[in-house]
Structures are given as structure tokens and as C-alpha cells.
């Protein structure tokens, strides 16, 4: 039982990360029916910008935790900017011309450019991110976990709740929801839909950048850290359903937990298989995802 | 001066320039290794070691009166890219030999092109036991693949012997899913079986995995009393982090990759005390080692070499190759191979002194007596038993066959 709880907890913390990245996919898909395939690279850049800021602040004499908290707004601001750049150069033209595939190629290309940039600026070696919290494990109810794992879950939840609250409560959020429901009608009602889409991309990269700084202290930071995670999160977005914010979070948890459970109870060599089987099952029986609303596409 | 003599003078001048040009044409040597990704620390250190040797050789007048020109390529630890680079180096760059290969998979995939073109390869880091066996006699007339790193058979035997001597009976093996990890795991299982030990758990993970809790818990549940690893830096760090996280106090040993800077840095305090075989430890235990460490630090402005083993083996591989080219008095692949198989000069290297390191049937310069057991202490690799590198023990040479 203790082992089960231990595995469950580690599955949840991995799943939360998948969920946050997938949440970014969901944000842009809702408003523009497009995705940023460079989401993994947005995560990489967020983590690396965080790395530089934190090491700079620590060099100034700040303790790691204070440096980390001060670095967060910088990382989030950078995420917003990076997302807006992706939308402006990769997606806007494709949406304007109603191109079916242009944005796919463009966001992949931008992802590669960002990765190469990261390699040139931060080098090709993986870097050790100074941990803001103690690295010694805590024991809670017989389960061992690292303080950073708790921070990951809390940080991810806080970010997603903030975005949801913004969408539901504020006038700007309502513009986002309206654009998601019907872009053309929202445009006719006087909502600046291109701006809403730019904003959703900015938010999407912000969530990836946050995921980056959250996991950086427990893994290594480097130009290649985002690629595998971006792909996993894509599977999560499909399982959970791209049209539901709650869906991607639950999808992330499902994938994270099944991976850990299979690894422990079956065989660590087959850890990735059940997640992919689940993906195939969802695609065959509920293509819109477990929580997605199936929409009829009018041609 | 009539026009005829003018043309004659121009022709004569042209011939002189061409002649001089031919003499100064550098000897091209290929260098293939990963300079990006998880293996980059090894690739970059190896490259820098090789470059250091080339600088020294060129400064001393080069080879056969010509300078050495390194043609460096990043194979990104990808098999298919390694193959592409091999073909480019052979056909386009016309290298006379190639040094490098960190990753066993890349070495196995790329070497066949050199073998076919009869161009020698010095494997200075890749450790897969198969690497030098791929083209051995009698199936092949001549083998162009040489090595100066401690192969996995040597390393796994050393790990198994340490396990047995320490009295552990229930090892758990945790390895990555690459060629390196899985071939190493097989070698390790074999070496343990020879000593009557059977692993109680064998776990696996993929490159890029960040959470090894499941693997560590399974090993713990199986009642393991020691954890043996076969993987590379970043994932090794995640493995020891998971072991510590679940509150498991267990000794960790593994292949030489536990000395990678990316492991030591990411594991931090959790990585202290892990043990691994090392052909070279960054300590000035011989005058040659002292000179090498100082030259490396001065040239690349670092204190700790990212992967000291790779740097030292890279450096030595270039000197072995240079000695062979000098002896062959030719850059023809077949003659270089023959010279390597019958080297007349003793080469004082960083890892060991090479006295007839190769023969027609033996292409391994490093034997089981050469590596020592290293351990991580204070963020650096030091000898596990200080006596291993003291006095007469410091220089360990291949026994005469």
C-alpha cells in the first residue's frame, strides 16, 4: 500500500507537468483552432531564462528561494512575449489565409529556431538549476517526496486556476471565451479577435515557461529538455480533449499515473505503452477526447 | 628577354609553387563524436583531448613533414547521422583515419564504411564489447577498427568482482534502453553469473525520462543490497535521486559514465560515494598526467575536465595514430593499420604507456589490469582506494602476450 501511494504521488507530479504543457495547447486551440508545435521549446526557453535569472540573482547574494520567486515574473513575462512572437510570425498569416497546414510547419520551424538559439546562447551541455527548496525528501504519511514535487503540483494548479478565473470573471476573459465559442460572431460583436488569439498564444507559452521552471530544479536544464515533454503533452491533449481545460489536466494525471503504475507493477521497459494504447483507444472511440465536445465541422 | 623565356620562367615558378603546395598539404584526420545532447560532455572532452594532442604534434613539426588537419563532425549520438558523417569524411574529405565515437551504437553503424574503404578507426571512448569484434578474422581479412578505451567486458567484470568481494549477493541492475545500456546489462549479467551471482531485479528506462521512482522501488522491493547502473549522466542522476528519495540507503556502482560531470552536478549530494571503473582520474599521479592536466586546464580554461576519461583517451588515441603514421611513412590506410598492429616505438600516454598495444588479432589497447575503481567525493572523481594510484601502482601497463 505504501508503495502504491509512493508510485501514485510520483505519477501525479509527472502528470501535472504533462497537464500544464497540454493546457497551453488547449488555450490556443480554443481560440484559433491552431496549436503551437514548438510548445516543448517554449518550455526549454522558459527554464533557461529562469536558469540565467536565478543564477544571476544568487550571484548578487540572494538566497535560492528568494532568487527563484523574483525570477518567476521575469520568466512569465518572457513566456508571454515568446508566445506573442510565435503567433505573430508563425500563425497569424495562416489564419488569415485559412491555410490548413501552414501554421503546423511554421510553429515547428519556429520551435527549431528557438532550440538552436538556446543551444547557442546557453551551450549544449545540460545545466544544473539551483534548487529553491531543500533537496532532502520529506516523509508525509509514509510517502517520501521531494519538496519541489509539491511545488510542481501547487504551482501548476495555481496557474490553471488563475487562467480559468480570468476567463470567467474579467471582461477580457469573456472576450476570450466568446472567441472560443464562435470566432466570427465574436468579431462581429466588436471583439478584436486577432488580439485575443495573440493573447492566447502568449498565455500558452507562459504556461509552458512556468512548467519549465517548475521541473528544472528536479531535472537538468538544457536545449533538449522540452522535446520529449512537448510530445507527451500532445498525447495528453488528445486523450483529455483539446477543447476542455479540465480535460487536459485530468488527461495529464491519467497518463502520468498509468506510466508510473505500469512501470512498477508490470515492467519498467513497458512504461510508455499503456499511455499510447490509451491514446489509440481514445482516438478510435472518442476522437474529441475524454472530456472534449465533438463539433461538426461545416465545410 | 624574349617571350619564350618569360613563359619558361612562369612555368618554372608555377612548378615550384605547386611542388611546395603539395608538400604542405595537411594530413586530414576525421573526428566524429556527439557535441550536443546527453553524451556531449564525453564528446567535447574527447574532442578537446584530441585537439590538444594535434596542437602539440603540429608544433613539433607535424607528421611526415606535414601538418595535421582535424575534420570535426557532430554525430549527435545518432546512428544515422554517424553513418552520414562517415561517408562524408571518407568520400568528400578523404581522411586518412578517423578518431572518436562515444556511443557504441554510432560506432557499430558507422565503422563498416571505414572497414570497406580500408581506413583505420581509433575508437577512443565507445565501450561496447562488440566494437572491435565486428570485423575480426577469420571472417574478414583485416580489421581496421582499433580501440583504446576499457570495453564493457572489462568494466562489467570489474564491477562484478567488486560486488563479490564486498559480499553483496542480491544486486539490482538499472540500465537505459539504448545499445549501450542493454549490451552493458548483458555483459554485467554474464560477469555476475560467472561469479555465481544472479541479479534480483533488472529495470529499464528511456533517455529523457525524469522520474525513476518506479525502477528504484521495484529494486528495493526485490530486496537488492546493491544497485548496478548502465546508462549516461542525466538519467543516472535521476536514478540516484529516486533511490535517495524513497529513503533507500544502498550502495550504487556502475559503468564509467558515473564519472560524467552531468551526473555529478545533477545528483549533487545524492551522488556521493558511487563507484565506477576509470582508466584516468584527474590527479597528477604521473609526470605525463600532470603535464596533460595542466595543458588541458590552460588551453580550455577549466578547472574540472567535464569527462577526464574521454579527454585522456582522446589525447592518447591521437598519439597512437601519429606514431603509426610516422612508422608507416605513408598515409595509406593499409600501411597505417599494419603499423598500428606492430608499433615499434613505446608511447608514453596519459592512461598508460603503450608498448606494442595492438597485434593483428588483438585490437584492444586497454586490458583488465589498467582501470582503477573511482568514487565521487566532494563533486569530483577520486580513486576509491588511494593506494591504487600510488607509487608503482600509478602506471599500469598491458601485460605482454
What does this structure look like?
The complex is a heterodimer of chains A (299) and B (401). Chain A has one domain. Chain A is 73% helix and 2% strand. Chain A has 11 helices and 2 strands, in the order ααααββααααααα. Chain A has a two-stranded antiparallel ribbon. The termini of chain A are far apart. The model of chain A has no long low-confidence stretch (mean pLDDT 88). Chain B folds into 2 domains: 213 residues, Rossmann fold; 126 residues, Rossmann fold (3-Layer(aba) Sandwich). Helix content of chain B is 43%, strand content 15%. In chain B, the strands form 4 sheets. Chain B has a 5-stranded parallel β-sheet, with helices on both faces. In chain B, α8 links the parallel β8 and β9. The chains are: A mainly alpha (299), B alpha/beta (401). Chains A and B meet through α1 and α10 of A and α2, β7, α7, α8 and α9 of B.
Amino acid at each position: 500500500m505504501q508503495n502504491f501511494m509512493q508510485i501514485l504521488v510520483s505519477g501525479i507530479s509527472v502528470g501535472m507537468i504533462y497537464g500544464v504543457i497540454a493546457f497551453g495547447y488547449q488555450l490556443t486551440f480554443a481560440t484559433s483552432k491552431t496549436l503551437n508545435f514548438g510548445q516543448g521549446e517554449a518550455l526549454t526557453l522558459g527554464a533557461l531564462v529562469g536558469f540565467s535569472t536565478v543564477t544571476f540573482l544568487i550571484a548578487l547574494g540572494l538566497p535560492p528561494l528568494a532568487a527563484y520567486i523574483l525570477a518567476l515574473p521575469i520568466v512569465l513575462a518572457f513566456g508571454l512575449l515568446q508566445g506573442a512572437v510565435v503567433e505573430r510570425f508563425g500563425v497569424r498569416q495562416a489564419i488569415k489565409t485559412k491555410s490548413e497546414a501552414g501554421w503546423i510547419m511554421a510553429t515547428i520551424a519556429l520551435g527549431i529556431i528557438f532550440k538552436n538559439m538556446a543551444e547557442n546562447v546557453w551551450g549544449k551541455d545540460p545545466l544544473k538549476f539551483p534548487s529553491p527548496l531543500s533537496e532532502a525528501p520529506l516523509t508525509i504519511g509514509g510517502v517520501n517526496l521531494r519538496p519541489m514535487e509539491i511545488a510542481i503540483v501547487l504551482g501548476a494548479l495555481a496557474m490553471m486556476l488563475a487562467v480559468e478565473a480570468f476567463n470567467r470573471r474579467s471582461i477580457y476573459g469573456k472576450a476570450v471565451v466568446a472567441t472560443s465559442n464562435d470566432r466570427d460572431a465574436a468579431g462581429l460583436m466588436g471583439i478584436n479577435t486577432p488580439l485575443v488569439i495573440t493573447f492566447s498564444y502568449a498565455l500558452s507559452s507562459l504556461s509552458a515557461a512556468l512548467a519549465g521552471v517548475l521541473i528544472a530544479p528536479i531535472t537538468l536544464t538544457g536545449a533538449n529538455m522540452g522535446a520529449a515533454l512537448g510530445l507527451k503533452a500532445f498525447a495528453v491533449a488528445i486523450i483529455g480533449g483539446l477543447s476542455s481545460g479540465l480535460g487536459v489536466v485530468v488527461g495529464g494525471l491519467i497518463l502520468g499515473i498509468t506510466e508510473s503504475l505500469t512501470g512498477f507493477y508490470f515492467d519498467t521497459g513497458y512504461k510508455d505503452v499503456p499511455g499510447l494504447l490509451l491514446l489509440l483507444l481514445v482516438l478510435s472511440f472518442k476522437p474529441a477526447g475524454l472530456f472534449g465536445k465533438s463539433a461538426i465541422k461545416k465545410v | 628577354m624574349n617571350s619564350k623565356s618569360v613563359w619558361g620562367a612562369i612555368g618554372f615558378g608555377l612548378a615550384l609553387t605547386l611542388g611546395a603546395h603539395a608538400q604542405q598539404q595537411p594530413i586530414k584526420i576525421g573526428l566524429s563524436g556527439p557535441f550536443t545532447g546527453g553524451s556531449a560532455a564525453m564528446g567535447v572532452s574527447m574532442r578537446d583531448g584530441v585537439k590538444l594532442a594535434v596542437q602539440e604534434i603540429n608544433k613539433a613539426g607535424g607528421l611526415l613533414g606535414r601538418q595535421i588537419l582535424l575534420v570535426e563532425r557532430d554525430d549527435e549520438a545518432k546512428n544515422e547521422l554517424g553513418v552520414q558523417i562517415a561517408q562524408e569524411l571518407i568520400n568528400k574529405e578523404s581522411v586518412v583515419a578517423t578518431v572518436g565515437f562515444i556511443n557504441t551504437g554510432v560506432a557499430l553503424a558507422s565503422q563498416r564504411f571505414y572497414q570497406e574503404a580500408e581506413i583505420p578507426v581509433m575508437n577512443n571512448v565507445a565501450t561496447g564489447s562488440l566494437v572491435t569484434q565486428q570485423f575480426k578474422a577469420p571472417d574478414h581479412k583485416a580489421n581496421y577498427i582499433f580501440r583504446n578505451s576499457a570495453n564493457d567486458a572489462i568494466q562489467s567484470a570489474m564491477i562484478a568482482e567488486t560486488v563479490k568481494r564486498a559480499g553483496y549477493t542480491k544486486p539490482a541492475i538499472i540500465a537505459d534502453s539504448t545499445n549501450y545500456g542493454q549490451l552493458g546489462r548483458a555483459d554485467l549479467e554474464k560477469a555476475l553469473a560467472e561469479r555465481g551471482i544472479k541479479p534480483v531485479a533488472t529495470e529499464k528506462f528511456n533517455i529523457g525520462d525524469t522520474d525513476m521512482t518506479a525502477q528504484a522501488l521495484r529494486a528495493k522491493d526485490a530486496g537488492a543490497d546493491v544497485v548496478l547502473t548502465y546508462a549516461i549522466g542525466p538519467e543516472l542522476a535521476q536514478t540516484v535521486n529516486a533511490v535517495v528519495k524513497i529513503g533507500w540507503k544502498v550502495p550504487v556502482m556502475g559503468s564509467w559514465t558515473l564519472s560524467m560531470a552531468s551526473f555529478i552536478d545533477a545528483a549533487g549530494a545524492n551522488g556521493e560515494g558511487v563507484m565506477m571503473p576509470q582508466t584516468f582520474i584527474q590527479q597528477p599521479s604521473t609526470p605525463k598526467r600532470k603535464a596533460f592536466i595542466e595543458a588541458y586546464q590552460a588551453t580550455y580554461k577549466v578547472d574540472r575536465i567535464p569527462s577526464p576519461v574521454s579527454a585522456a583517451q582522446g589525447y592518447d588515441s591521437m598519439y597512437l595514430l601519429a606514431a603509426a603514421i610516422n612508422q608507416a611513412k605513408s598515409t595509406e590506410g593499409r600501411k597505417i593499420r599494419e603499423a598500428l598492429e606492430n608499433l615499434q616505438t613505446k608511447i608514453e600516454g596519459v592512461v598508460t604507456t603503450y608498448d606494442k598495444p595492438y597485434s593483428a588479432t588483438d585490437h584492444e589497447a586497454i586490458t583488465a589490469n589498467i582501470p582503477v575503481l573511482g568514487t565521487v567525493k566532494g563533486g569530483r572523481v577520486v580513486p576509491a582506494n588511494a593506494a591504487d594510484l600510488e607509487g608503482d601502482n600509478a602506471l599500469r601497463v598491458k601485460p605482454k602476450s
